[in-house]
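Minutes, project check-in
Item: structure for the 65-residue chain
Input as provided by the requester:
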Amino acid sequence: KQQKEVLVKTAQAMPKSDAMDRLIKELLGDRLLELSRYVMLDTLNRSMTIDKTALIDAGYTLITH
């Protein structure tokens, strides 16, 4: 929570476009961190490992096509 308060104070001192860019980067970072808990990409073997059990236990639904 303290980190978010610092980011809010920092964002208030920035121009709006810079503050928006920083917010977008923070949100993307949060989502990538969340995704990395369940998904591992292996670019060498061109494979993706998904921890389906952990994903479902966390309340997500896995949809495949």
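Outcome recorded: The CA atoms of residues 38 and 51 lie 5 Å apart.
No further action items on this chain.
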